[in-house]
Each structure stands twice: as C-alpha cells, then as structure tokens.
Design a protein that fits this description.
The protein is an alpha+beta fold and 205 residues long. The protein has 6 helices and 11 strands. The protein folds into 2 domains: 135 residues, 2-Layer Sandwich (Ribosomal Protein S5, domain 2), CATH 3.30.230; 64 residues, Alpha-Beta Plaits, CATH 3.30.70. The chain has a 5-stranded antiparallel sheet, sandwiched between helices. It has a 4-stranded antiparallel sheet with strand order 9-10-8-11, with helices on one face. A hairpin with a 3-residue loop joins strand 9 and strand 10. Helix 3 packs parallel to helix 4. The mean pLDDT is 94.
C-alpha cells in the first residue's frame, strides 16, 4: 500500500482541548485549541469565549474540518487583514491537522505591535496551544445507515465490532436503525458482510 493510500485512510487531529498564553509588550494572547467536527461546534466555542472574555479587544480564530481540504475558515476579527486568522490556520496546517479549531483572545496592552508583531503573536499563541495536546491518528470513516429486524442485532453488532466501526446513532426497537461510521480502508469488506445478511438494508448517508 502506497504512502498516499495510507494517508487517505487516516487523518491527524486532537481529542482534547488546551489553553496557552503568549505576551508581547503588554498585550496578552490566550489561545484555545479544540477538537471539532462542524463549523457550528467551533462557533459555539467562540460564543462561549466572548462571554468569558467580554473585555478582550479581539477574538480571532481559524478552523479546518474534514478531509477534502475545502472546509476551513479564518477570522481576523478587526485586526489588520492577514495578521491573525491566517497565521493561526498555518499552525493547524503545519501539523497536518483537521477537525481542529483554534481561537485566540487578545487583550490590548497599550502598545501597537505592527503587522509582523501581530503575525508572530497569533502564530506563537496558536503553536503553543497545539503543542500542549497530543496529535492522534484517526480512521477516515464513511457513514452508513442500516435498517434491520431486531433478530439480526447480534450479527450486525458482531460486524460493527469486528471492523472497528463507530456508532453514531442507534434506535433499537422491533425494527432497528443504526448509523455507523465504517473505516474507509475496510468499506468493501464491511458492506459485503452486511449485504450478505438477510433482511438488512444499508445506504450511504
């Protein structure tokens, strides 16, 4: 298996949050790193920090979500363009991370730092926060929805456990609904085994 194939089946992220602080000429930059799976999750962390730090002058952030490289956002929140959000995103990207949001809260210290000073401060604060959490490797998963009669429960769950599928949602009644994340590397095997079971239907979601 080629290196690129392995990289396609796995991604790097963090699974815990961290806080780090950087000071420059009186200004204080507090960086928060969070594992996130959606833009909404990142937004809720941002709103919480705005409540926690109402006197801060800027709440800048960057996030990258998913594996296609297209779902990211940066915000300078009033700082000169390109001095906050982009340097934060660059730190996420330099570690090849995804499903990560970094928010940097700034308290102004009375001295202007200039463009190079701001870029350095946001970059350093983000880097410090990301250094505090271990990077973990996760499997890229494809989400499927399974429908089956409750009598098939044991057979379905055996396959789910055998191939390390993650359970996203389950409704277990007479007829069961199970939403699972199937590791991309084992997708064909899992679907073959599931489709081999009588009266179990699967569809990609």
């Amino acid at each position: 298996m080629s290196k690129s194939k392995i990289e396609e089946d796995f991604y790097y992220t963090i699974d815990q949050s961290s806080i780090a602080e950087f000071k420059d000429r009186g200004s204080k930059f507090i960086a928060y790193a969070y594992p996130v799976s959606s833009a909404e999750e990142s937004k809720s962390y941002l709103q919480a920090l705005k409540k926690e730090h109402p006197k801060a002058v800027h709440h800048c952030f960057a996030y990258r979500i998913g594996n296609d490289g297209n779902n990211f956002r940066v915000s300078d929140d009033g700082e000169p363009s390109g001095t906050a959000g982009k340097p934060i995103l660059n730190q996420i990207d330099s570690k090849q991370l995804t499903n990560v949001s970094v928010i940097v809260v700034r308290y102004f210290g009375g001295t202007l730092l200039g463009v190079p000073g701001l870029i350095n401060a946001y970059k350093t604060a983000a880097a410090l926060a990301l250094q505090l959490v271990p990077v973990i490797q996760k499997q890229v998963e494809i989400n499927y929805e399974l429908h089956f009669d409750y009598t098939k429960m044991n057979e379905v769950m055996t396959i789910v456990k055998q191939f390390n599928c993650s359970i996203i949602h389950q409704e277990m009644q007479l007829f069961c609904l199970l939403k699972i994340g199937i590791p991309k590397a084992r997708l064909d095997e899992v679907l073959y085994k599931i489709n081999d079971l009588y009266s179990v239907t699967s569809k990609k979601i």
